[in-house]
Amino acid sequence: MNNRIVVLGGGESGVGAAILAKVKGFDVFLSDMGTIAPRYKEALAEYDIPWEEGHHTEELILNAAEVIKSPGIPPTAPLVQKLTEQGTPIISEIEFAGRYTDAKMVCITGSNGKTTTTLLTYHILKDAGLNVGLAGNVGKSLAWQVATVHHDVYVIELSSFQLENMYDFKADVAVIMNITPDHLDRYDYQMQNYVKAKFRIINNLTPQDALIYWQDDPVITEQLKHVTTDARLYPFSQEQEGSDTAAWVDEENEIVFSTPGEKLNMPRADLALSGLHNLFNSMAAGLSACLMNVRKEDIRRSLSDFEGVEHRLEFVADVDGVRYINDSKATNVNSCWYALESMPDSKSTVLILGGKDKGNDYTEIEPLVSRRVKAIVAMGKDNSKIMEFFNGKVDTLVSTGSLDEAIARCREIASPGDTVLLSPCCASFDLFKSYEDRGTRFKNAVKALK
């Protein structure tokens, strides 16, 4: 019997999958087209797992009984297509890890807000005393944790890429924050392909499981008309829209959480996180905690003392009366919309846009830009799309090719009382290693102005 498992990708996800496969007695091989970080090489050596970097040796890969593919590798990659054509099963690290744990799974996806919601949910459950792990796009690899520690519950952030190769994995609580255009370059520029990938989170849900979602998202509500699920539904909304709404804000400006056997009220003003997007994030996290039977007082306390997420509407500094905000995590248009929604309704925002475009349509933010933005500073290798779209729509529109140039132009344009907002709408890979690298370098550059 062939028990050979090949892992493609030597990052957190791939190395975690390789370790779990080794612990479970498989013949494991890991291959990465890029360079494997030293800490991951050390882990592979510790478990005596053979690996290669800088290339794929096909004869060592095509003989696998099963392949675990890291989420960043697209299905169109030539080696992946060869494996598919010969019928080799290709799964995700999350799918593989789910076979070896009976822990409860709180799984969170969405185009925006999923990282904050995941960390907030984890914060609530951990502070309530649950034995909980954090996995997926944040935290350590789920497979690595399943191999080396025991948790009763996992809170997992799932991207559409991770959901693509999940088949039998099942959430106990599934959360869909919202679905707006993102990563369309991965999905043949077909929005419905992206929607279907996101909705894989509801696969295999039973009547004992729960689906939490934003009731006012037109894409989610439309897709729910065309799919079936046995799960109990818990929609949330800014206002109660019927007896099925599970979380809303009442006339006294209190958030109401209503689940079977549990009703919790909390003043909206007590939330640690401000802004409409964070209201929804808090509702989703609070509902998840209610369904995990966390006590009311623990939920209230944790929703009021959470410290937020780096690179998401993060205050950096006040320089010469100008506020600088790092929202580097806004890698799509809808995420930028939420950032602009939290800005003053006056033309006092200098907005930094730009990066690697993923098929963006800037129409969504145009009304907010016209009311709240005095200037757009485009920052990227190719700013032509931004410059063309916003030409004539803001008082000042400039193109820059580096962070230092962008910061310098923002400083020239901004006046005391203004806000410089880095909320790029785009991926970071043209000028930076990651959105974290972009945000960190932005913060360092701003602090150097003082």
Summarize the structure.
The chain is an alpha/beta fold and 450 residues long.
Topology of this protein?
Layout (H helix, E strand, L loop, with lengths): L3 E5 L3 H12 L3 E6 L5 H9 L4 E3 L12 E4 L8 H8 L4 E2 L1 H6 L5 E6 L4 H14 L4 E5 L5 H7 L4 E5 L2 H5 L8 E4 L14 H8 L11 E5 L3 H7 L7 E5 L10 E3 L4 E6 L2 E6 L8 H16 L4 H10 L8 E6 L2 E5 L6 H9 L7 E5 L12 H7 E7 L4 H7 L5 E5 L2 H11 L5 E4 L12 H13 L3
Parallel strand pairs: 1-2, 1-4, 2-3, 4-5, 6-8, 6-9, 7-8, 9-10, 10-11, 16-20, 17-18, 17-20, 18-19
Antiparallel strand pairs: 12-13, 13-14, 15-16
Count of domains: 3
Assess the beta-strand content as a share of residues.
Answer: 15-25%
Query: Looking at CATH, which topology of the largest domain would you report?
Result: UDP-N-acetylmuramoyl-L-alanine:D-glutamate ligase
Tell me the distance between the termini: 66 Å
Main sheet: strand order: 7-8-6-9-10-11
Helical residues, percent: 25-40%
| CATH C-level of the largest domain | Alpha Beta
Count of DSSP helices? 16
* Biggest sheet layout: 6 strands, parallel
**Shape category:** globular
Looking at this structure, what is the CATH superfamily of the largest domain? Answer: Mur-like, catalytic domain
Structural class: alpha/beta
* Architecture (CATH level 2) name of the largest domain: 3-Layer(aba) Sandwich
Low-confidence parts, pLDDT < 50 over ≥5 residues? Answer: none
The whole-number mean of residue pLDDT values reads 92
Rounded to an integer in angstroms, the radius of gyration calculated over CA atoms is 23 Å
Let me know the number of strands.
20
